[in-house]
Amino acid sequence: MAFDPIHALVGQAAARFPEQVAVQTPLGDLTYADLAARSDRLARELRAAGARPGALLPVLTTDRREFAVAVLGALKAGAVFVPFDLDGPALRLRDTLSGTAAEFAVTGADETERITELLATALPQARRIPVDLAAPADAEPLADPHTPGPDDPAYLFFTSGSTGAPKAIAGRMRGIDHYIRWESALLGVEPGWRVSQFASVAFDAVLRDLFVPLTTGGTAVVPPPGLLLDGAGLGRWIDAQRLDLVHCVPSVFRGLAAAAESADSPGLASLRAVLTAGEPLAPADARRWFARHGERVRLVNLYGPSETTMTKTFHVVTPADAERERIPVGKAMPGARIAVLDGRGRPSPQGTAGEIFIRTPFMSLGYHLRPDATLEAFVPNPLGDDPDDIVYRTGDFGRILADGSLEFIGRKDHQVKIGGVRVELGEVEHLIRAHPAVREAAVVPVKDADGDIAHLCAFVELTQAVEPEEVGALLGGRLPAVAVPQVFVPLERMPRTISGKVDRRALPAPTLPRQASTTPYVAPRTPTETALVRIWAELLPVDEPGVRHDFFESGGHSLLVMRLLSRIGTEFGVEIPLQDFLAGPTVEALAEHVETAMLTGGDSLDDLLDSLEGLDEGEAERLLQGGSA
Which fold has domain 335-413? Predict the structure, then answer.
């Protein structure tokens, strides 16, 4: 396939459609002529400042018009753009920015004070090159924009790391060109198409949001802040803006699909295609979508990690797919191949789960300044004997279906995606253990009624009592909001396997956060309930807890649970297993457990775990699941 630098393709579109709006935002519009002139000016300023080809160039702006100018200006100067989401966790932003050791940074016009403070701590020596859309643009075009090779680096995007330090994925020029050409051809994108720009600038999905329209004479359309959380409002906005193409994560699509069930939902007459990627697409959501819109709007499910440049498989979803247990992620796009291998590196039989490997010349260059991590993930093809035939080991499980399509099953390791955001559970655990009161931590995903990951739950082994807000404060500045556990469950002793590893199967089943209580007050009726109400009143911020009021809805939190159970042990002389409490966190239910334990001398949680040691693994798991909340 012929290669063209992506900025050259945008330049061709700008020459054909100079007065067409290239980027439309709530702050204003930017035409192709303005985009070309202002990116030319930025490229000149970068060169004059001393930026050489290959220099890392952080991009710090919230205005997507400025972002488009910055990316194109960087590429025209030969720099490697490194986008940062200024709304992301402050400490993570500072640390990753500092790690670039960049000599220059492109900044926006409306974040002056904030960016000044950030650069002062992270890159104090960096020279700021501002993008000022109010300033006059250069009249003369850039005579000699940088001409990169197909394998030259174009960008860095940061992803989670298992040690708590994010890794920077280095993307190559031809990877962008290949993907954008492929999607544009698949959908038949034409001049004038209006394409959503939903993705955070810190994720490589922003590349398709930006370059699919900008290389074809279309318009990248940015929604008002906060609209992605409102499915009905987002649908009305898509309709009013006459969008042709929407890229989104399935959790955003879920809001659109749910809103489609409403009798007054918009018809989305202009919409031609919705492409989802980043997490599994739920069959129930596809079913709702097809019931309202039929197959007029193409629904395409994509799969592929950032390490292989955006996505590498696709599947056009049909109504029949909505009746499956899982919607396939499809077949490899041209220029890529997918293999599902067993633990010995051999092809898994059709329908049998194995690890997904991706082979493509359009993958990334690996992890910037992390040769160890690169060699671990980018490995010689197990199906050949050529050491130079490199494939990417995804760490995902999948299976090949009868029609040759790939079905994604889940992560091989402890990496998950929540709302399209990749979360490394090891990173979260690593940061929790940094708290002086935490000896050990195990973080697990919690699924909602639809089977999707709703939030994270952290089990912690403590050296001393600590409030959850204190642990949360440690994480809040270093992790995306979805990566901060919503529930913390203290354990006196973390269950472990014979080898000494945390036994995740023996952890109590986590639950969803409780909602506000509407349970009417019921007074205690027995001496046991009366005593428990007194204990609850001493621990919780309520004067008269009712026997049917939920512990968590009454102002309790998970790190108070062990204090409660300890008080019960002291006062009643019994031990109540944690999972029994989580199954019914009310005075009424707890009183029954206390009275039963007083009569039978009930087993503690440790006794329960000890009793399982003599059972085979399957039987132990069944018993634990049967006794969990």
Answer: Luciferase; domain 3 (2.30.38)
Choosing among 3.30.43.10, 3.40.50.980, 2.30.30.140, 3.30.460.10, the CATH entry for 1-172 is 3.40.50.980
| Cβ-proximal residues to 506 (8 Å cutoff; 6+ apart), any chain | 495, 609, 612, 620, 624
Residue with tokens 């303005």: 34
Read off φ and ψ for residue 212, nearest 5 degrees.
Answer: -60, -50
DSSP H or E stretch at residue 99: helix 90-100
- State which H helix or E strand residue 398 sits in: strand 390-400
Q: Do domains 1-172 and 415-494 have the same CATH topology?
A: no
Distant-in-sequence, close-in-space partners of 372: CB < 8 Å, separation ≥ 6 = none
pLDDT of the residue at 188: 97
Residues of the chain with pLDDT under 70: 1, 160-164, 413, 448-451, 496-501, 511-518, 541-543, 555-560, 562, 601-629
What span, in angstroms and rounded, lies between the C-alpha atoms of 20 and 196?
Answer: 16
Residue 48 confidence (pLDDT): 94
Cβ atoms 410, 360 nearer than 8 A: no
On the 0-12 / 13-18 / 19+ scale of CB atoms within 10 A, 313 is buried
Please state, in angstroms and rounded to a whole number, the distance separating the CA atoms of residues 186 and 629.
47
Task: Look up residue 551 and give its two tokens.
Answer: 């512990």
Beta strand ranges found along 306-376 (DSSP E): 313-316, 331-332, 337-341, 354-359
Superfamily (CATH H level) for 415-494 = ANL, C-terminal domain (3.30.300.30)
Based on its alpha-carbon atoms, the radius of gyration of the chain, rounded to whole angstroms, reads 27
Mind spelling out the 3-state secondary structure of 537-569? HHHCCCCCCCCCCCCCCCCCCHHHHHHHHHHHH
Superfamily of domain covering 527-612 = ACP-like (1.10.1200.10)
Note the pLDDT of residue 155.
Answer: 98
